[in-house]
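Hi Y.,

Following your request, here is the sequence exactly as I used it, all 230 residues.
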Amino acid sequence: MCFLWLLVSFSLLPNVANSQCTNGGTLVATGCTLSAQCTPYSTLPVVCLNGLCCTTTGTSTATCTNGGQLVATGCTTAQQCTAYTTSPVICLNGQCCTTFAQSTTCSNGGQLVATGCTLSSQCTAYTSSPVSCLNGLCCTTITTSSTCTNGGTLVARGCTTSDQCVAYSYGRPVACLNGLCCLVYSGGWTSYTCPNRGFLVARGCINALQCVPYAGGCPVTCLNGLCCTV
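Below is the corresponding structure, written out as tokens. Let me know if you'd prefer a different format.
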């Protein structure tokens, strides 16, 4: 296994003997199949072209079709672009383009903080408020009119899993209910009993992994929505 790793690593070391980048960029390594394999060999945006790792910043004629700023080329997904800018970014026709637009309006009436998202978790870096991804827009989502169906306190909105709520609960048990992050401790826990006779540490779970932060290092499992020690 170690010998194989050495062979692969060696094949990606620079080899400029008879190689030339077709995009006019600088050759930094050879033997690639994916652009992601090229990034360790340059601090500049790079792309894999015919097995060659080539820099891509020398494409001054390229423009972003969305009117954004071009920060890199050679992408296939937006995630490959995030290393080249701190602004929201998207991959359009192989180009990494910034996507923030002041004129865009959030459909939920919230405040726009970024654009180009596909998941709510991508929006959290741009605001300290609860946030959701709506049609590619990062919008603040907390309102005073929403009510938790479990009687708990609302701490955030726009969730799809309880894991997304943990950052807003400050260590307190929390659950995602109908897109709402709701605290699950309401003082009425005496009516809930672990079927395995374990100690109840949280409610609103779907799997045991969601219970781990509340178990204090003890073995824990999720039983009928209850986090119970085992």
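The mean pLDDT is 73.

Thanks again,
Q.
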